[in-house]
Design a protein that fits this description.
42% of the residues lie in helices and 15% in strands. With 251 residues, it is of the alpha/beta class. The chain has an eight-stranded parallel β-barrel, surrounded by five helices.
Length: 251
């Protein structure tokens, strides 16, 4: 079982502090959030730690479902930069959000938003395959601006494109999916965090109501060989979540 932690937990600290904390816990992977304030990362810094990496492509001010072509193209360009960076540092996966909608597009052009997102996801998939990088698309929580909150629809799209999913367990629970539904062959990467279903809270594992053991055991029984990224709010939550994983699974 491969365990990692997201650098998002150290967003208010230096990347050096975050990498040192995670390495000292004995965690094998760090998922680098490739946007401000860590938009420009020195490879020398990464190489100074005994850590492997994944990349979370930017999602702040980025929208691959934008109906404004210049905005869409800029967003894809930023994600392709993350794929290139993943190639440079031999990162094992890249995570991408499927895009957003807003009031006017959602009211007047909802089908066009999905069509645009699908075209962008296909374009990103082709770029990642040409680059030899595993790029995965993440299911979203139940917020009005989000698209591809429906895991089944996302899975169908990804299967049709020969692409893969990041299962975000907390997002799926926020959408009301039960533990047994969080199980698709397209899943190659996992974001693990907890909540009570009423918010995308990113709590430490075991601090919410999600049936985490059922979800993870179902994946393990299907020989899941991806990485479980602890995507929680702070350093203390990383530590608590890692202890939860060690207490409940063979690590």
């Amino acid at each position: 079982m491969k365990i990692g932690a997201s650098s998002l937990a150290g967003i208010d600290r230096t990347l050096k502090e975050t990498l040192e904390f995670i390495e000292n816990l004995g965690i094998e992977y760090v998922e680098l959030v490739h946007q401000f304030p860590t938009e420009n990362i020195e490879t020398d810094l990464l190489e100074s730690y005994n850590i492997k990496y994944t990349i979370h492509a930017p999602f702040m001010d980025v929208n691959i479902a934008s109906l404004q072509e210049k905005s869409r193209a800029n967003s894809i360009g930023q994600i392709e930069d993350s794929i290139d960076f993943a190639n440079e540092i031999n990162a094992e996966a890249v995570v991408v959000h499927p895009g957003l909608t807003s009031f006017l597009p959602n009211k007047f052009f909802p089908e066009k938003v999905i069509q645009t997102a699908n075209e962008s996801i296909k374009e990103i998939g082709e770029y990642s395959k040409d680059s030899g990088v595993l790029t995965t698309i993440e299911n979203m929580p139940d917020f009005p601006s989000m698209i591809y909150k429906n895991m089944y629809e996302l899975n169908d799209l990804l299967v049709s494109l020969d692409m893969f999913m990041t299962l975000d367990i907390g997002h799926a629970n926020h959408m009301g999916y039960c533990a047994g539904e969080m199980n698709f062959d397209s899943i190659k990467h996992v974001h693990a965090h907890d909540n009570f279903g009423d918010d995308d809270a990113h709590l430490a594992l075991g601090e919410g109501s999600i049936e985490l053991n059922t979800i993870i055991n179902n994946l393990e029984n299907k020989n899941f060989d991806g990485i479980y990224i602890l995507e929680v709010n702070d350093f203390d939550s990383i530590k608590k979540s890692y202890e939860y994983m060690k207490d409940n699974f063979k690590i």
